[in-house]
């Protein structure tokens, strides 16, 4: 991933040095497990643990000759060891180390992502509370529908993030698995006890059945969850983009001192953060497709998945970490124009209360069809004349047959649309 979208802590997890440190952790754990079975002298394990040195540059030199990264790794380690070097990689095959170590990297990456999600959850909860009773226009099909609370819109986002947290926790648990089962998964040269011992040391579970690799449906599911989280962010960001349009102007991303919106037009304040999140969500969904295509491997394994995963696993976690943090900054500093929200409701001339008038007439024992047709006629008149819907309703002979002036006025009370805000918040768990 390009540096522009990598935050340091997540980038460190996927650094070459850290990857090799995780490989070494698996190798040492395997030797310790062998020692626990009496196969390897404990003194040799202690020496290996103390003396093994990772030299990234030296490994690259060896790999240039061997064209095999794990062979280069084991030989690089051996150069820093004495007689204990013979136990490095004992009974193991490459993916025993690579997949198990990668599970450790993913475990660390997921811990960061979970923190990111919980931070965003807290921000959204606070903003939902702040705007709990802030009335705005609700829209369907991009058209004004009925008034609603901006807080309820944000509560809906909280609810979605809650589901994302549940999904991430479940898939994190699912991915916390290792395997040390040998060349084709039969434990021919390494007993299951070693695998169990290594996984216990590393805080993982043994995958019940493997070939030479962990089954890649695990990774496909994992990437699909991350893609769904990214899509949640795109969902929210798209709404901010829409509400920031000049013609609506109800919310806006923060715009810092010295920031420029356009190289040509000095007046521009563009929703660049939300647009950035939208674009990166597309990239992550593309990675999800690659992960699904990685599931089908030849027989017990091939490496068609390997090259792809070297890209999609680091890049997806790094991108999502970046997106979550950027969107949290947007939401923390979101500019909310409450006056413009009221203005946009009033600009309809009361049309957005048409359903309330319809229901008020039905409550007077008028058939729905008759009431609907009369209310629609009034709405059409409001759209084609300079009179508001409320004025036309107050003057309507048909309406006045059934509703008193006070009852008509009550139809246009915006507070009706906020009656159940607190109940909605309780459903989401926001007190």
Describe this structure in words.
Its EC number is 4.3.2.2. It is an enzyme of class 4 (lyase). This is Adenylosuccinate lyase. It is a single chain. The protein is mostly helical and 431 residues long. The protein has 2 domains: 92-342, Up-down Bundle (Fumarase C, Chain A, domain 2); 351-411, Ribonucleotide Reductase Protein R1, domain 1. It is built from 18 helices and 6 strands. It has helices at 8-13, 16-36, 42-51, 56-66, 69-78, 94-130, 150-175, 192-202, 217-244, 272-293, 304-332, 338-346, 354-362, 368-384, 389-395, 397-402, 405-411, 421-428; strands at 135-140, 143-149, 177-178, 205-206, 251-252, 335-336. It has a two-stranded antiparallel sheet. The protein has a two-stranded parallel ribbon with strand order 3-4. Strands 5-6 form a two-stranded antiparallel sheet. Strand 1 and strand 2 form a beta hairpin. Helix 7 (150-175) packs parallel to helix 18. The radius of gyration is 30 Å and the shape is elongated. The two termini are 40 Å apart. The mean pLDDT is 95.
